[in-house]
Amino acid sequence: xxxxxxxxxxxxxxAYPITSLIVFLNxxxxxxxxxxxxxxxxxxxxxxxxxxxxxxxxxxTYAFIxxxxxxxxxxxxxxxxxxxxxxxxxxxxxxxxxxxFSILTAALVIxxxxxxxxxxxxxxxxxxxxxxxxxxxLVVFKKNFLDKESSNVILALIAIGWLTTLVIPGTSFAGHxxxxxxxxxxxxxxxxxxxxxxxINNRSYYR
Length: 207
What we know:
Layout: H1 9-15, H2 17-36, H3 38-44, H4 48-52, H5 58-61, H6 69-90, H7 92-112, H8 125-141, H9 148-167, H10 173-189, H11 191-194, E1 197-200, E2 203-206
Antiparallel strand pairs: 1-2
């Protein structure tokens, strides 16, 4: 089963340095947000008007700010569970490229499909949904790439993720859509390398 974590804390940090760094940076920003409150949200969140106004730093900062502790914990737990296998598969350089590609693509879609002139989008879930998109590509186009149990879990998580996106008020549909498309597209672009690998129990093996 792909998503069962068996590593110690130290082993996790060593095996998945980029995933660990992403979680660490988000945690630091969450701690800062506790003290600074809504100022962080207004300073680093993204919407169309702020980007048109030239505040391009928000294309990155929004992904490290969360709308509350539950939002933060949900995204971090999901990242810790689902990101390691893809980091191991891609390697650190391609994995961090996926991270930035996904949050920038999600930001672009947020700008193209704005939720409202006064609503700021924040959160790392654009990256989380890029993992959904990446895994979905594997399940659909690489049917023997993952074990059956992991494939079923992925499909269930994707279904739950999109259901909550549609029914929970204030959820960034545009950000999730942009992330999902980015992950699927990234998997498509690295497809030739994926042909040489197989994931079993969270480890990648050359075939």
